[in-house]
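Reopening this one. Same input as before:
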Amino acid sequence: MTYKSIFTVATHTAQVPQTIAAAARLCAQTDAHLDILALGVDRTQIGYSYIGSGAVLLQVSQERAESDALALEGAVKAALAAEAPGLRASVEAAVTQIGAMTDLVAQRARFADLVVLARPYGKEQGVEAEAVVEAALFEGRAPVLVLPETGLTHAVPKRVVVAWNQSREAMAAVRAALPLLKQADQVAITVIDPPVHGPERSDPGGMLCQMLVRHGVRAEVTVLARSLPRVSDVLLRHLRDRDADLLVMGAYGHSRFREAILGGATRNMLEQCTVPVLMAH
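Same output, byte for byte:
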């Protein structure tokens, strides 16, 4: 398997150059086609309005969303011309209300081998950025590569950390990352505080390591103690220690509601990680 269809969504002009550059590098590496959705978001959520004002509000918001979509489309085309003039790519501009965004993004993401998106948390990001990531992961059932502020430094990562907890989400992420894992110099299957009871209690990460080695992956297992309050903190320190340039992990092992209210490894990693994170659910 390799990535032949890569998809990205532009919702903020500030992230367009970095995201397009990363997606273009991956496409060039795998001879893939890049599909881009320039998305203007109508954020109007009218609970009530005075007589005669509702139609005006809707019209103004719709016009602003259309203007945003056209501006994003222009920024995307400029970035493509600068980064990859010969790349096979298609650009589509669309307008959606925030409540209907999930279906639009998911419908396109489910036909992609990989979705490349900017980090959904930051000063310039709105609620639509997080909604796009979740739509691709949950409804689109697509693997998502989330970029840090520094973008994608290596189209082919050399040192990869796989966060392994025996979950279905982690297994889905590993399978989706196989084209990248097979090209890496080092893949560290990282297990934090493995359970004392369970199918892998005698050999944590051993079966996954065996599977990856059979695929030609240079994999090894690292078992770590939970020496910091949060699992994400241990992972972040391990990424720094190994000078890793990619993290592979399952996304949202708990419910999205719990992650949003209480936090969780997925949200913490997306907020703090300084390397690209390839996730799947």
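So the earlier flakiness isn't reproducible anymore. For the record, The mean pLDDT is 88.
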